[in-house]
Amino acid sequence: MKYSKATNYALHTMLFLAMETPNKPVGVHQLAERQNVSPTYLSKILTKLVKEGMINSISGANGGYTLSKNWEDISFLDIIHAIEGKSSLFDCCLYSNPECVIKDVMLSAEEKLENELRNKKISDLVKK
Amino acid sequence: MKYSKATNYALHTMLFLAMETPNKPVGVHQLAERQNVSPTYLSKILTKLVKEGMINSISGANGGYTLSKNWEDISFLDIIHAIEGKSSLFDCCLYSNPECVIKDVMLSAEEKLENELRNKKISDLVKK
DNA sequence: CTAATAAGAGACTTTATATATCTATAATAG
DNA sequence: CTATTATAGATATATAAAGTCTCTTATTAG
Ligand code: SF4
Ligand code: SF4
């Protein structure tokens, strides 16, 4: 079990954008170069962030990506969910079993992880 | 990112063994049947638990698996680590960067998850 | 001792997912 | 119109998970 590289790229891109001049679009080429990843692949990842409303994309010359208006509220968990999906880490075969003991432990542990990631925002990393 | 099925099988097997008469070996065939998994595959998973000293295996007629002496101390985290390995969930490209901000957040969140899993033991599920 | 039983080991196959790449299309600034 | 830049979809490659098969080793009931 590991976070995907795509999640890593998404987090770094958000951090880069947060450190840039606001409202000035940054092209995927530049973002990809800083992370040693192909622009087309990064583009595909960033499109997920666009669809979740975390960043805006601007086509055409001088286009690129900018952070969305509400970017200061975006948490690590939001970004991870956008890339990895929102389903639980633990797949139980019988969700209907109300007596289940294993599931409770696994889900409560996952909740601790998510709480921490929900409380950390990209904007926390920028404000010094 | 998801826990593997192998982890699921390992957790369930530990729970089954904990509910059985102590010291009476349970064969892999029986354990596999209860989980709808092939015996040879489950065997491969259980061998990992044997190597970590969590369970004992007994060959030959009337053989099978028993919990190890210290089984009451075995945590969820121990079992998960035995199957999934102990490496971090977050792979950072530059571990050497002391200024890293993303890594700190990811590792501290993982720590919260692990703390919870470390505090929950299989024996907690059996004692009523 | 022998035959049946049961775990372990290694090679292999299959399936699924992650990680890309390639090409074509759409939007926009100048 | 043309150069630039994002988006979409098909395809390809790599890696890992999940499962099978066969042979070996250990134990014990009889
Ligand atoms: S014990 Fe819980 S985790 Fe296991 S099969 Fe039942 S419901 Fe699922
Ligand atoms: S910022 Fe942190 S996570 Fe990102 S490359 Fe640097 S050390 Fe790694």
TrEMBL record, chains A, B:
Q: SUPFAM superfamilies under this entry?
A: Winged helix' DNA-binding domain
Show the InterPro entries listed in the entry.
Answer: Tscrpt_reg_Rrf2, WH-like_DNA-bd_sf, WH_DNA-bd_sf
Q: Name one Pfam family in it.
A: Rrf2
Q: Which domain of life is it from?
A: Bacteria
GO (cellular component) term, any one: cytosol
- Can you name one GO molecular function term for this protein? DNA-binding transcription factor activity
Q: Which PANTHER family match?
A: RRF2 FAMILY PROTEIN, WINGED HELIX-TURN-HELIX TRANSCRIPTIONAL REGULATOR, RRF2 FAMILY
Protein name per the record:
RrF2 family transcriptional regulator
- The organism is Cytobacillus praedii
